[in-house]
Amino acid sequence: MHLPRPHRDDVVIAVAALLGGLLLWSLGLYTNGDVNRPLPKWATLVPLVVICAMSVYRRTFPLTTLLVCTLCLTVDVFSVGSLVTIIMFSDGVYVSVVYGPPRFAHRTPVITGMLTVAMTGLLTALLQVPEALLIGVVFGLITFGPATTGAIVRNHREAADAAKLRAEQTALLAEMDRVQAVTAERSRMARELHDMVANHLSAIAIHSTAAISLDDAATTRSALNVIRENSVEGLAEMRRLIGLLRDDASADDREPAARPSLAGLESLVAQAGTNGAASGLTVTLDDRRAGQNSGEATLPAPVELAAYRIVQESLTNALKHAEPGEVHVRLVHTAGDRLTVTVTSAYGAGAGPRAPGSGAGLVGMRERVALLDGEIEAGPVPGPDGGPEKIWQVRAVLPVRDEKEPDA
Questions:
Q1: How many contiguous H segments (helices) and E segments (strands) does the chain have?
Q2: CATH topology of domain 174-399
Q3: How does 90-115 read in b/e, with b if 16+ C-beta sit within 10 Å?
Q4: What is the pLDDT of residues 22-55, one digit of tens each?
Q5: pLDDT digits (tens, 9 = 90+) for 129-170
Q6: Rounded distance, CA 320 to CA 279, Å?
Q7: How confident is the model at residue 218 (pLDDT cuts 50, 70, 90)?
Q8: Which residues touch 95 (CB under 8 Å, ≥6 apart)?
Q9: Structural contact between residues 381 and 343, judged by C-beta atoms closer than 8 angstroms
Q10: For the ranges 229-233, 253-257, 371-375, the one whose mean pLDDT is highest
Q11: Domain boundaries in the chain?
Q12: What CA–CA distances, in Å, run from 196 to 191, 199, 229, 260, 370?
């Protein structure tokens, strides 16, 4: 059997105890005197050497150490006795509580306390001399005292370990929260960047293609005007987004970043109509929100932002993929109910998209709707007349709680 390497401190303690015991023995300092003992004087060195040798593994084998210490103390009682053997026995009780199994560590102070009381009472009853109480006190000092001290030390260590574990768990949870917050913020920034710029870049790509492919001065000039308009607006929106991300920007040099709302929906639809005219697209708006004509329509800002971005992305996709025809935007909302956004466009097997797409638009719309616990559907559906022709429809349902309702 390969024994583990002992702890350095245990080796130092064992060597110091052995040298101290040999010194006391050589000086004739015994705990039991040198008369009426069945064992010779040199016999006290045997338990001393054994108990010091076993103490080298006091941390590794605490229960075995306690057993050996008990046997050595028993032998020491029948010899002239060594103070070092008694001290090392007390150390064996201490380490068995500190490093032993939890159940044993919890029971040892109780057991040693009961033995101390029982021995003191028994010796007092049998001997009926004051020295019997002194023997009981000494027995308690070498058994109950170390066991209680070990229990206190073990409890403090366990409390420290538990506090350290809680601190590590708290740090881990904080790091997880930070990573989740960073990930969520990056996703939000990606959605905003895509929704703000994709519409303008798609219009630029389509009209630049028209300007290159068509040899007509009027068409080229019109396309270049649209390209310039979308470039300027896209650059302005990009600057607003960058202004939000700059940590060192002061209040004087940062442009106000207005959050898009449904109040700008007509302007968005008009711009989309201008951008899609060259592709044969006409864009119409049917806004049936309650109170919107009187200017009293109020929706939560997250709902208005999500609805605006859904319409914006749907119009961008229509500009890229839709067949020539009508693109219809419809909003329906009644107070305290929900907002339904529907965007339809002509659907067919065309030659391909007029501008490249990344596929992130639908993902961004679904993420926005999911954050509001809403529903969204996107795909081809039968036309309104029930014929074989289909239309592409994006339909999002956004829950809206009436702001006048009391909080639950």
A1: 11, 5
A2: Heat Shock Protein 90 (3.30.565)
A3: bbbbbbbbbbbeeeebeebbeebeee
A4: 999 899 888 887 666 778 888 899 999 999 999 9
A5: 887 888 888 888 999 999 999 999 999 999 999 999 999 999
A6: 9
A7: confident
A8: 58, 59, 62, 65, 66, 150
A9: no
A10: 371-375
A11: 8-165, 174-399
A12: 8, 7, 14, 10, 20
Type of residue found at 96: S
Q: How far is it, in rounded angstroms, from Cα 70 to Cα 204?
A: 92
Burial class (CB in 10 A: 0-12, 13-18, 19+), 191: buried
Contact 255, 243 (CB under 8 A): yes
Q: Which of 134, 57, 44 is nearest to 92 (CA)?
A: 57
Identify the three-state secondary structure at position 169.
Answer: helix
Rounded to an integer, what distance in angstroms lies between the CA atom of residue 40 and that of residue 330?
A: 110
Q: At 247, list the tokens.
A: 């940590």
* Tokens, residue 154: 């073990």
| 202 Cβ contact partners less than 8 Å away, ≥ 6 residues apart | 275, 316, 319, 320, 355
Q: What was the pLDDT predicted at 34?
A: 61
Q: What is the token pair recorded at 337?
A: 């109910």
Tokens of 297: 């329509």
- Alpha-carbon span 4 to 212, nearest angstrom: 83
Neighbours of 234 (CB within 10 A): 18
Q: Cα 379 to the chain's mean position, in Å?
A: 37
Model's pTM, two decimal places?
0.51
| One-letter amino acid of 325 | G
Residue 49 amino acid letter? V
The pLDDT assigned to 405 comes to 44
Question: Whats the size of the chain, residue-wise?
Answer: 408
DSSP 82: -
Beta bridge partner(s), residue 212: none
Residue in 122, 147, 148 with CA at minimum distance from that of residue 135: 122
